[in-house]
Automatic annotation (TrEMBL):
Gene3D superfamilies: PGBD-like superfamily/PGBD. This is Peptidoglycan-binding protein. Residues 25-81, 98-152 form the Peptidoglycan binding-like domain. InterPro entries: Peptidoglycan-bd-like, PGBD-like_sf, PGBDSf.
Length: 177
């Protein structure tokens, strides 16, 4: 079961993901488009329409990763797209799957949140992100953006990003010129 919640569905297995063909539409296409964009494809809008631009991007991705170049997103392409995604290269939200989600879960565990590292953004991961957002005085919307990644990685805190504080520091140094 998903993250210990018996009422939630199990995390999607890439082999169980739908085979998506050019000209298909829907949520699976949106995820493909987001993954392609995160992998550097340009000109792809996550609109849920598997048009010619998306097909070209899929074929280019397949070629670069040594996959069968057919423009169809089957189990192998899904697995490759999800397993080679760099953390922070796409917005994360409930329902997504990937190595970036697994990295997120690992960082949450380091911060003391009890989540499983299964690569599926389920209910427990959503709850942990909302708690993390509240703790850092951010809107608790369960969306993991670059600010969340930065905070989780401990690169800086919100007080150092305060425009007032930076302004006062600049003003203080102005007197030394």
């Amino acid at each position: 079961m998903n993250e210990g919640d018996r009422t939630s569905p199990s995390p999607p297995n890439p082999a169980d993901c739908p085979t998506v063909y050019p000209w298909d539409q829907g949520a699976a296409v949106v995820e493909i488009q987001e993954l392609l964009s995160a992998h550097g494809a340009s000109g792809i809008r996550p609109d849920g329409d598997f048009g010619s631009k998306t097909e070209r991007a899929v074929k280019l991705y397949q070629k670069r990763h040594g996959l069968r170049i057919d423009g169809v997103v089957g189990a192998e392409t899904w697995t490759s797209l999800r397993s080679s995604i760099q953390p922070g290269s796409r917005l994360l939200q409930p329902g997504l799957v990937g190595s970036d989600v697994m990295e997120l879960q690992g960082l949450l565990r380091v911060c003391g949140y009890e989540v499983r590292r299964d690569g599926y953004f389920g209910e427990k991961t959503r709850a942990a992100i909302k708690a993390f957002q509240r703790e850092h005085h951010l809107r608790p919307d369960s969306i993991v953006n670059s600010t969340i990644w930065t905070l989780l990685r401990g690169r800086r805190n919100l007080s150092s990003a305060s425009p007032t504080r930076n302004y006062k520091q600049k003003k203080r140094f102005k007197f030394f010129y």
